């Protein structure tokens, strides 16, 4: 897996995980799955939104370790491009008719109880995953001295890791859906609905319904030499 690339763009440090298929979540998920496979797990399950980037990380990481990935998602007339790509990578897609997110997750949990598969919560937000992500953030940003950090907060795990890696600078997070666990970060709220694309995206590839929604706030508020962690394309 190629190392993290950090570019200087518009006087900002930008983590370019749009350059890695599956993005930052894959970087942390693959080593976690390697450990879980060694412990005997063979199938990993996630329930999320149709637009969610986690399905791509799950698909890539499951393939990385030779395991089975299963993604529960609300059934749509046409599959989202992320879902189409995930299926093409070998991820099992289980569509839930009229499935709100809480229903989709309940179905995913029930499936794991029946089959013995491993269930991941939203954002892969577990202590084990957070520990790996913290190590990733710390090692990737070694030698970089940002004035502050910016990230999008789905679950809030990434900004919490940034806060631990850089305890002496300000942190900012952009909410794109439900209330995240964002630690001490100053929280901004994207005006777009989660399913909608960012109205004002950045000048580099960024997930339209996720990371890209931070850009409007970064342009207006970021200090010179701020660091923006771009999770995926």
Structure description:
The chain has two domains: about 5-20 and about 125-230, Pyruvate Kinase, Chain: A, domain 1 (3-Layer(aba) Sandwich); about 25-125, Rossmann fold (3-Layer(aba) Sandwich), CATH 3.40.50. The chain is about 35% helix and about 20% strand. The chain contains seven helices and ten strands. The chain has helices at about 25-40, 55-65, 80-90, 100-115, 125-140, 155-165, 215-220, and strands spanning about 5-10, 10-15, 45, 70-75, 90-95, 120, 150-155, 170-175, 185-190, 225-230. The strands form two sheets. It has a six-stranded mixed beta sheet, covered by helices on one side. Strands 5-4-3-6 form a four-stranded parallel beta sheet, with helices on both faces. Strand 3 (about 45), helix 2 and strand 4 form a beta-alpha-beta unit. Helix 2 (about 55-65) runs parallel beside helix 3 (about 80-90). The longest helix has 16 residues, at about 25-40.
